[in-house]
Each structure stands twice: as structure tokens, then as C-alpha cells.
């Protein structure tokens, strides 16, 4: 692994930094992404990114990218989080579906979908989990029946992120009910406004609708919207899952930036507030471990990116990576809450952390979902045990 940046890398970083500093909306300028109004706000900014060719820097120019490498993408992510860029409304598409599309899609599918995905014109949600098939994805019951020119999809998907507002959905359905659990599945690209699709937003505790359950009642999907081959959907879905658990969804900048703010919070916390902080205190140790883990994830990601650049693929180690980044996220925010105490519930900036203190609480509540989504960490530990360590199945 070579961590020496080239002059070209440095120039790319400076260009990205200058654009982001000039264009990233100030804190609070965009309404919550989990509301209809905020969804539209974020799509406007997504279009700005696309027009300046910053939305998907590693993609081909034909789809709005800059055709740079994975190192430049990591550099851009570092600068994006450094500038305080908002959550990406298009993340399900550009970080999860897109790598799978580049591997399995036809030229016609790429031409039809990629630029609209990158610009935010079409936002995607993920149709995988079902009421009786969450971590056990192979247990899905939603089915697709062959008909003239396409398929009729029936069933229910749940916990669809951005599902309340998305334009399209990618998901797997059982096309051969007689096949083994991991076979007879097919990956579909589905319009959310098709006849037979019913979307029911799932309200969170704050009343916002970041998720939805989606019902399919004989929804017609044409043959040209099958991704990959019929019956081979499990393999295609695992490519998407690898992206979700590996390096594309959760860039290390997300955690190193949060860890830097955590250290600032530690240093800004007065000793006389009852915390009795000093370099030997337990909370300081907790902060430093979270900081070190964030840096370790960054170095690991650069190592993985180096291997990918040399032609290697990310396999079962993506499960180990997912365990690490999700638990690091929890650790960073848990340490912040311990520092803040009751102040974590304030919606004001008192100078400790450079942001609304309530953002640490919001971040903690979201971090708690990390060990669950993208496949629960319990399941990922089984994958690590069996596929990386060669241990026998229990």
C-alpha cells in the first residue's frame, strides 16, 4: 500500500475543496432528507454536484463522471465530509446499485439509467427485506411470474430507505419457487409509479419517514428491466451487498471527520463540569480508541482500494469491514454522549463541537442501526467465521 499522493491527486483535492467550500449549503439550509420537502432540497443540491461533475467522479464521462480512479473518489469523499456536505439523497443508487449495474447491466440499461441516477433525476430505493426475510435474505417470498414480454411481481418489501419518495426500486423476487433457497431468484429494476405498486411510509419516532413498506400487486416489469440473468439474482444481489458492506457506501471520511469532532469535543469539555477529564481518564481512553479505530478504517480502506486498483475483488472480507465501520460509528457517538451528558438533548450550539449538540444524539440513534442494516453483524460474523477463517458451520 502506497499512501503517497501524486501531484495530480493533490491538484484534484484542491479543485474539489474549492468547489465544495463555495457550494456546500450552510448547516440547516436543507430541510431533513426524511421529509418530502427535504427530499426535494437534497435533489437540487445533487443536481448541482452533477452539473459540476462532482456527483460520481469515478464514473465514465458519458454518465456525468470524470473517469478518475478509486483513489480520487476517496479523496473527494474526504473533502466532501470536510466541507460538511449533506447526506446524499442518491446514495442507494450511486453507491449500491451502480457498482452492480457496471458489472451486470446491458449497454441499453446503462444508457437508460446511469445519468439520471447520478443527477438525482431518478432516486432509487432498495427492495430486499421482507417481514419474514431480513438478515435471512434467501428466505424472501415475494414472487415474479412470467408473462408476455415481462414479469408480474407480487409481494411485500419493508424497511426501504428513501422508499417513501423514491422513483425506482431495485430488488430480488423468487422466479422459481421450486428451486433451492439461494437459487431461482431474479433481480429487477422497478418503477415505483407502476400500476399495482402501493407505498406506505413508515414513520420514525420523530415523525419523519425515512423508510417505507412497499406492496406489489401483479406489477408488470418488462424483460429489459431484469438485471443479470433469470434465476441468478442471488449472485447479483451479493454484488450489491458487497458494495454496501465494503468501501462504497461508507467511506472512511464519514468516521474520521466525526472522530476529529469528537476529539475537539473532548478538548473543549471543562474539567470542572464533573467529568474530571485528564489523559488517564476512562472517557479520554474511549475517545482515543474511537479516534484510532476511525484512522484504522481509513488505512484499511486505502489498502483495499489499492488491491481493487490492481484488479482484485472485495469478497467475504467486506463482512469484516462492515462489522468494523458499524461498531466504530456507535463508539464515536457513544463517547460524545458521555462527554455531553444531559447537554446532548440541547438544540443549541454552546461552542462544544461546532454544531448543534443534538446532532450527536441524532447521530448516535442512527449509528445504532448500523449493526443491523446491510446484514446484521451476527450474520456477518458467521460469514467471517466460515468464509475467511474456514471454521465449520455450527
In a few lines, what is going on in this structure?
Helices cover 45% and strands 13% of the residues. The chain is built from eleven helices and eight strands. The chain starts with 6 loop residues before the first helix and ends in a 6-residue tail after the last helix.
Spell out the key features of this protein.
394 residues; alpha+beta; Butyryl-CoA Dehydrogenase, subunit A, domain 3; 11 helices; 13% strand
Structural account:
This protein has 394 residues and is of the alpha+beta class. The protein folds into 3 domains: 1-89, Acyl-CoA dehydrogenase/oxidase, N-terminal domain (Butyryl-Coa Dehydrogenase, subunit A, domain 1), CATH 1.10.540; 124-234, Beta Barrel (Butyryl-CoA Dehydrogenase, subunit A, domain 2), CATH 2.40.110; 246-388, Butyryl-CoA Dehydrogenase, subunit A, domain 3. Helix content is 45%, strand content 13%. The protein is built from 11 helices and 8 strands. It has helices at residues 7-23, 36-51, 70-82, 91-104, 107-119, 233-245, 253-268, 282-309, 317-340, 358-367, 377-388, and strands spanning 124-127, 143-147, 150-157, 168-174, 185-191, 197-202, 211-222, 226-227. The strands form 2 sheets. It has a 4-stranded mixed sheet. It has a 4-stranded antiparallel sheet with strand order 2-3-7-6, with no helix packed on it. A hairpin with an 8-residue loop joins strand 6 (197-202) and strand 7 (211-222). Helix 4 (91-104) packs across helix 6 (233-245), helix 9 runs antiparallel to helix 10 and helix 9 (317-340) runs antiparallel to helix 11 (377-388). The protein is globular, with a radius of gyration of 22 Å. Residues 349-355 have low confidence and may be disordered.
